[in-house]
Specification:
Trna Endonuclease, Chain: A, domain 1; 434 Repressor (Amino-terminal Domain); elongated; 11 helices; alpha/beta; six-stranded mixed β-sheet; single chain; 15 strands
Length: 309
């Protein structure tokens, strides 16, 4: 399934990077312009998926991308659900999305089934018809305050209310599923707790987390990824991957660099050798930089030397 989806994404103009291992929390990352999505394909939601879910969520928050679980069995067609806070789609719905077919943004929540409404379109249509906000509320069977919340984009509609809106104004008032709209939906949800530095056993990774804290980055230690740390400072549009490289880890090193490239971020590879810059997306630094303030200076150098694309 993964190879089929990645091929379809490439045909549609996406740059695709495979993680290289089914054990990781994502199978591949796809990017095109401002759309970036990390995708994990699963047969069904089980304990194995639970272990990877938190890492996928951390990846989404730190790199400011859309994490997405694509489920082959048990997922509802033509709608979005969430699993442990991660957006999920059925395999066939995902294929429709890639092909550019219009799928309404319908999602399942604890409170029921909801439809994402394009509030700005509702407002324009209402005014074109000469309706007051109160008249709209009456027609929808909701309070004036709720009608106002719809127009401001701060509330989503139940299926019943959405159906009434479509009958009144047409289906353009309903948001369509896309990687961008899924990303916005995920971004609005609560972020997972950051990894406390004092719980990290590896002294080098611990120091990296402390430095990133000092620099104001949102950062996470990852357990199921080719790189150990993902961090972001979204107000400055800066993202960073850190990998503690080992002998014979060339594949993981390459994946880390490729992910940095498609995510428009930087990668730091910690090696046994001397510091040398490789392109604008990666800098290599020796493990001895752990001593003193040198690590902080090298992190700052990486962020300034490896320019964003």
């Amino acid at each position: 399934m993964a190879s089929s989806l990645s091929s379809e994404l490439r045909v549609r103009g996406y740059a695709v990077v495979s993680s290289g291992s089914e054990d990781y929390s994502f199978d591949f990352i796809a990017a095109k312009r401002d759309e970036i999505v990390a995708i994990k394909l699963v047969e069904r939601f089980d304990s194995k998926v639970r272990r990877a879910a938190e890492d996928l969520k951390r990846l989404g928050k730190s790199l400011d991308l859309a994490p997405l679980l694509v489920c082959h069995e048990g997922a509802v067609e033509d709608s979005l659900s969430t699993y442990r806070g991660i957006p999920s789609l059925s395999y066939e719905t995902m294929r429709r999305l890639i092909k550019g077919e219009e799928v309404p943004f319908i999602y399942f929540s604890r409170g029921g089934i909801y439809v994402k409404i394009r509030g700005d379109v509702v407002k324009v249509k209402r005014r074109e018809m000469g309706m007051s906000l109160g008249e709209l509320a009456y027609s929808l069977g909701v309070t004036r305050r709720m009608a106002y919340e719809y127009e401001m984009g701060r509330a989503d509609a139940t299926l019943e209310v959405a159906s009434r809106l479509v009958k009144m104004f047409g289906d353009e008032v309903v948001e369509k599923l896309s990687f961008k709209s899924i990303h916005e939906y995920f971004s609005s949800r609560q972020a997972p707790e950051e990894t406390p530095s004092d719980r990290v056993r590896d002294p080098l990774l611990k120091r990296f987390l402390e430095v990133l804290d000092e620099l104001g980055y949102t950062r996470y230690l990852l357990e199921r990824a080719p790189f150990q740390i993902a961090a972001g400072k979204h107000d400055e549009q800066r993202k960073l991957l850190i990998r503690k490289a080992e002998k014979g880890s060339g594949v993981e090193d390459k994946v880390t660099v490729d992910v940095a490239r498609v995510c428009r971020s930087q990668a730091i590879l910690v090696t046994e050798g001397e510091v040398r810059v490789e392109g604008k997306h990666v800098i290599k630094m020796p493990g001895r930089a752990l001593e003193g303030a040198e690590l902080r200076e090298l992190v700052l150098e990486a962020l300034s030397t490896c320019a964003l694309s």
